[in-house]
Automatic annotation (TrEMBL), chain A:
Active site per database record: 50, 61
EC number: 4.2.1.20
Keyword vocabulary terms for this entry: Amino-acid biosynthesis, Aromatic amino acid biosynthesis, Lyase, Tryptophan biosynthesis
Protein's name according to its UniProt entry: Tryptophan synthase alpha chain
Similarity section: Belongs to the TrpA family.
Gene responsible for this protein: trpA
Organism: Devosia aurantiaca
Automatic annotation (TrEMBL), chain B:
Gene for this chain: trpB
EC number: 4.2.1.20
UniProt function note: The beta subunit is responsible for the synthesis of L-tryptophan from indole and L-serine.
Positions where N6-(pyridoxal phosphate)lysine occurs in the chain: 98
Key words of the record: Amino-acid biosynthesis, Aromatic amino acid biosynthesis, Lyase, Pyridoxal phosphate, Tryptophan biosynthesis
Protein name, as recorded: Tryptophan synthase beta chain
Molecular function terms from GO: tryptophan synthase activity
Name of the top EC class for this enzyme: lyase
Keyword Lyase part of the UniProt annotation: yes
Length: 274, 406
């Protein structure tokens, strides 16, 4: 079963172009602006969208994404609301893959079966659930795979060769390599080490490898894009939303700030393979 | 006997770290290899006579174990029912049961070659115990503590700093134990190569709930033997307060397969269980969900967002509970009851005036349940409270509530 993610990554590979996966928090800073941000991402240069599902206790996220989640929750965001955003997006875009990224509890409380059915219907293609390691695959991973959704796994510098097969076993779509031990928004220790790590992962799988955590600038994008099938960018985009606000409210600069950054990063990525 | 009793309630967790549907390993991949290492190391240590001998030696000469079993005579007469006994964990070095677990885990950290320790703390009791063992074993340590708790438990903050720990106040959320745990997990994920996370309660990802329970089980094991020596039988009821639930599971575990012993856990009822987000009674007022590495009862809204909760007691002010308690709650082996701030304050004062023992506000919740229970029991029956901590840390905040401070 191929998904929008599989198709998009195959196309990009044929074009020898690394993918730009752009993460935004669904409903940040408010529901309407969040929808506008989501809708413009493909045009700005995002190849894949990672849509953040806000959670009250984001244990693997740095301050920027914590604040983005708090803004979305304060604006009244819910899982039902996030699914609605995707539905709205799909009215105009049938091809850009959307990966839901978040923590398990809101999905568990919503009901796993109900979530999978509604996510498919809304047009979600895959998910990254930070606190569901391979050891908990029975919870959501296996039912999601059975339903034809991608379950994308994070691998980290601590995921050694002994463990990689366990982690990759039920991974589909792509492998998300977390470039460092830490929360979102930290700094990459060594760009060279990222290339080695991608090679190491590719020794275990044919899936595309997308690198995230710590990529902030077009130069980072160009450099990391050289070594990987794609890059994922989140913290700087959520930060751009945060700094565009006046008294906590969206301004005319909010959507543009994210759009400009995505375009800039996409430009950097185009330099990666020249 | 090596044959396992399949009807026993003491066999958990299973190999996936589950107590029924509760528990598990809901953590980021970065932490998974370490958690598996920790489990291996713990299994090896449990079978290593040298390790066990060191734990026992420290328990005796450093902590001061066994802790006494004390007959609270005036309180018994006052309540007019069952005999009331205290298992005096507050007499341990550092002033609570928390040291039992910290000693066991710091030796594991050493075995694993870790060079830095982090911990979360609510009331500061676990933070003090962690800072203490880190001083003794010469490891740098960082304690995460909610900013609200830093304020209401200042004496413990000072103790930790004097012991050489760095105390990092956490301002996120309500600035209580949940937020401290989030921040500790973020630190751990960032410094996973060097750092040992010394979790203080019987919660978190497997193997922590099992490990912390095992280290705290000394409470119930001693209590059982001491009570037998005093009265020649088992107590009729045991009671402990439950936040995350480490002193409670340590007290209860030895009695789970004794059907004649009633077991009560006192949750933080705060302003009252009917007050929205006004309590921290996760079993009475919450439902199962996934947070901080385990599935358990949680205070949460309809969308699965975790609530802050409230308790006068920083140590019980947590929206979750250890997974074994969640399972014991479902199986009805243990009765969990909410105790309000007001009831705990009354118990605090009664214990202080009648027994000359200032209990921690956490333990006062357990005592409040004893005060309800004892008068309903006959005079030849006995109820034992785990007096898990002493209240020196609370004198200022209780003084404020009582209007003793200007």
């Amino acid at each position: 079963m191929t998904t929008r993610i599989d198709r998009r990554l195959a196309e990009l590979k044929a074009q020898n172009r690394p993918a730009l996966a752009a993460y935004v928090m669904a409903g940040d800073p408010d529901l309407a602006t969040g929808q506008a941000i989501l809708n413009m991402l493909p045009q700005a240069g995002a190849d894949i969208i990672e849509l953040g599902l806000p959670f009250s206790d984001p244990m693997a996220d740095g301050v920027a994404i914590q604040l983005g989640g708090q803004r979305a929750l304060a604006a009244g965001q819910t899982l039902t609301g996030v699914l609605g955003m995707v539905e709205e997006f799909r009215r105009k875009d049938e091809t850009t893959p959307i990966v839901l990224m978040g923590y398990y509890n809101p999905i568990y409380i919503f009901g796993v079966d109900r979530f999978i059915a509604m996510a498919k219907e809304a047009g979600i293609d895959g998910m990254i659930i930070v606190d569901l390691p391979a050891e908990e695959d029975d919870e959501l991973c296996k039912p999601a795979l059975a339903a034809g959704l991608n379950f994308i796994r994070l691998t980290t510098p601590t995921t050694d060769d002994r463990r990689l097969p366990t982690v990759l076993e039920n991974t589909s779509g792509f492998v998300y390599y977390v470039s460092m031990n830490g929360v979102t928004g930290g700094a990459i220790a060594s760009r060279g080490a990222v290339g080695d790590a991608v090679e190491r992962i590719k020794g275990h799988t044919d899936l595309p490898v997308i690198v995230g955590f710590g990529i902030k600038t077009a130069d980072d994008a160009a450099e990391i894009g050289r070594h990987a099938d794609g890059i994922a960018v989140g913290t700087v985009l959520v930060n751009a939303v945060g700094t565009s606000l006046v008294d906590g409210k969206a301004t005319e600069k909010t959507v543009a700030a994210v759009r400009d950054l995505v375009a800039d990063l996409a430009g950097g990525l185009r330099r990666a393979r020249v | 006997m090596s044959i396992q009793n399949t009807n026993s309630l003491r066999n958990g967790p299973d190999e996936h770290g589950r107590f029924g549907i509760y528990g598990g390993r809901f953590v980021a991949e970065t932490l998974m290899p370490l958690i598996l290492d920790l489990e291996r190391e713990y299994r090896a240590a449990k079978n290593d006579p040298e390790y066990l001998a060191e734990v026992e030696h420290l328990a005796k000469h450093y902590t001061g174990r066994p802790s006494p079993l004390y007959f609270a005579e005036r309180l018994t007469n006052h309540l007019g029912g069952a005999k009331v006994w205290f298992k005096r964990e507050e007499l341990n070095h550092t002033g609570s049961h928390k040291i039992n677990n910290c000693l066991g885990q710091i030796l594991l950290a050493k075995r694993m070659g870790k060079t830095r320790v982090i911990a979360e703390t609510g009331a500061g009791q676990h933070g003090v115990a962690t800072a203490t063992v880190c001083a003794k074993f010469d490891l740098p340590c960082t304690i995460f503590m909610g900013a609200t708790d830093v304020e209401r438990q200042m004496p413990n903050v000072l103790r930790m700093r004097m012991l050489g720990a760095e105390v990092r106040p956490v301002t996120a959320g309500a600035g209580t134990l949940k937020d401290a745990m989030n921040e500790a997990l973020r630190d751990w994920v960032t410094n996973v190569d060097t750092t040992y996370y010394l979790i203080g309660t019987a919660a978190g990802p497997h193997p922590y709930p099992e490990m912390v329970r095992d280290f705290q089980s000394v409470i119930g094991t001693e209590l059982k033997a001491q009570f037998r020596e005093e009265e020649g039988r088992l107590p009729d009821a045991v009671v402990a307060c439950v936040g995350g639930g480490s002193n409670a599971i340590g007290t209860f575990h030895a009695f789970l397969d004794e059907p004649d012993v009633a077991i009560y856990g006192a949750e933080a009822g705060g302003h009252g269980i009917e007050v929205d987000n006004g309590h921290a009674a996760s079993m009475t007022g919450g439902r199962p969900g996934v947070l901080h590495g385990n599935r358990t009862y949680l205070l949460q809204d309809a969308d699965g967002q975790i609530l802050e909760g409230h308790s006068i007691s920083a140590g019980l002010d947590y929206p979750g509970v250890g997974p074994e308690h969640a399972w014991l709650h479902d199986s009805k082996r243990v009765t969990y009851v909410p105790i309000t701030d007001q009831e705990a304050l009354e118990a605090f004062q009664l214990c202080t005036r009648m027994e000359g023992i200032i209990p921690a506000l956490e333990s006062a919740h357990g005592l409040a349940q004893v005060m309800k229970l004892a008068p309903t029991m006959s005079k030849d029956q006995s109820v034992v409270l785990c007096l898990s901590g002493r209240g020196d840390k609370d004198v200022e905040s209780v003084g404020k509530y009582l209007g003793l401070l200007k």
